[in-house]
Design a protein that fits this description.
Elements (H helix, E strand, L loop, with lengths): L2 H4 L1 E5 L2 E4 L4 E4 L1 E5 L2 E6 L10 E4 L4 E4 L2 E5 L12 H4 L7 E5 L7 H9 L7 E6 L12 H4 L11 H10 L4 E6 L11 H9 L5 E4 L11 H7 L5 E3 L17 H8 L3 E2 L10 H9 L23 H9 L5 H7 L2 H6 L17 E14 L4 E15 L2 E4 L13
Parallel strand pairs: 1-6, 2-7, 8-9, 9-10, 10-11, 11-12, 12-13, 13-14
Antiparallel strand pairs: 1-4, 2-3, 4-5, 7-15, 15-16, 16-17
Length: 398
């Protein structure tokens, strides 16, 4: 047995869906070490000593990417363990969305991103402020730190960015204002610091701190910037007649990306259905998983994907949102988002479950006879079972 054979895994019998290539067929994927070396019918035949991973009855996709999580456990009491949301939920790549500000990102990196116990690939959207941390009491908002311009120091933020370029994929901005309700110095700072990187912003307000209004926010965003919680109720996307506003439409048309960012109350089936019916489909599906919503209504990435699927989006497009589109959103298309030969072996394995299910956004419920459930994933060629996504869900219909 050769060394190459020792390190070879053949994922066989699964339905491979790779939206980047339009591929949808039962084929082999061959992984050698941490790289994909072959994809195709009988591709594994030339590796007779390879270890076979039988994916019969499953979907095999490029590694799912969740671009909005909170995983810096220890910075406050708001976050969840990276691997719970990541590899143990069938998601090999996650992005922490703004848990840490510029003076804290280095600590977060050592404690989570680079920690030897962390198996999930973790990137970060950094808050450009010096001090930001997410906790249950929203202390940075309660004490007005998140709306104090003295909390901004471009030199500090630039140094943090330069020191962490390989893990910072953009900025997560709380678009709060100080003296001018039509201008957020925090949004302006992020755009000035690194014009080539995307900015993720919220629809909706924060406890204790006012934000610039939705039309002003939309007008300021650039192509490639990301609106998370884009399908929340009352976010200002719809006018009094329930139609998309002119500023929302203009932002979408110039390339501002729409992200689900489910969270506990920031995804609304009626709003999502209305926008999707009018052509405003999500670019990306993310969970905003944290301690407040992991036991419902979010649960996991596969449950969140199921909610977009039940709204009539084709399965291949749902997968596209968490692979091709998510990789593009964080400027990592050269590394992730497809099962191309030579790419790092980030691969997700899902199952379509049939039965009677009730999917909830926290307020509204849709019944369905099918849903997605994670089975496991490969991260850098190593397989992880999705133990977190196998727990019984309270939302299963009687």
């Amino acid at each position: 047995m050769t060394q190459a054979d020792t390190e070879t895994t053949i994922i066989r019998n699964g339905r491979v869906i790779d939206p980047a290539t339009g591929h949808d067929a039962i084929v082999d994927i061959v992984v050698q070490g941490d790289r994909i070396v072959a994809v195709g019918a009988e591709a594994g035949a030339i590796y007779p000593q390879g270890n076979v991973h039988d994916a019969a009855g499953c979907l095999v996709t490029p590694g799912l990417i969740d671009i909005h999580t909170h995983c810096f456990v220890g910075l406050g009491d708001f976050c969840l363990p990276a691997d719970m949301m990541g590899v143990r939920s069938g998601v090999p790549i996650i992005v922490d969305a703004g848990t840490a500000g510029a003076t804290i990102i280095g600590l977060a990196r050592r404690a989570v991103i680079d920690h030897p116990a962390t198996e999930t690939k973790v990137f970060a959207l950094m808050d450009p402020a010096q001090i930001y941390l997410a906790n249950k009491g929203f202390i940075c908002h309660y004490l007005n730190i998140a709306a104090d311009e003295r909390n901004l120091d471009l030199d500090v933020a630039r140094e943090a960015l330069d020191d962490n370029r390989e893990i910072i994929v953009g900025f997560k901005v709380r678009a709060t204002y100080t003296d001018d309700p039509k201008r957020s110095p925090f949004l302006a700072a992020a755009m000035l610091l690194a014009p080539e990187l995307p900015v993720m912003v919220h629809f909706g307000e924060f406890p204790h701190t006012p934000v610039i209004d939705t039309d002003t926010l939309l007008a300021a965003l650039r192509p490639g910037d990301i609106i998370t919680h884009a399908y929340r109720g009352g976010g200002g996307q719809l006018d009094a007649k329930g139609e998309p506003t002119a500023t929302f439409r203009a932002a979408f048309e110039r390339g501002v990306r729409l992200d689900v960012g489910h969270s506990g109350g920031d995804f609304h089936f009626p709003t999502a259905r209305r926008l999707i019916e009018r052509g405003f489909t999500p670019n990306t599906i993310s969970t905003d998983l944290n301690v407040f919503n992991v036991e419902g209504p979010v649960y996991s990435m596969s449950t969140t994907m199921s909610k977009i699927w039940v709204l009539g989006i084709p399965l291949a497009d749902v997968i596209r949102m968490n692979t091709v589109n998510a990789a593009a959103a964080i400027r990592k298309s050269d590394d992730y988002g497809t099962l191309a030969v030579g790419r790092s072996a980030e691969i997700s394995i899902l199952r379509i479950e049939t039965g009677r299910f009730a999917l909830t956004d926290g307020h509204n419920t849709i019944k369905t006879d099918r849903r997605l459930r994670a089975v496991g994933c490969f991260r850098g060629g190593r397989y992880f079972e999705a133990t977190h996504d196998r727990e019984p869900l309270a939302e299963a219909a009687e």
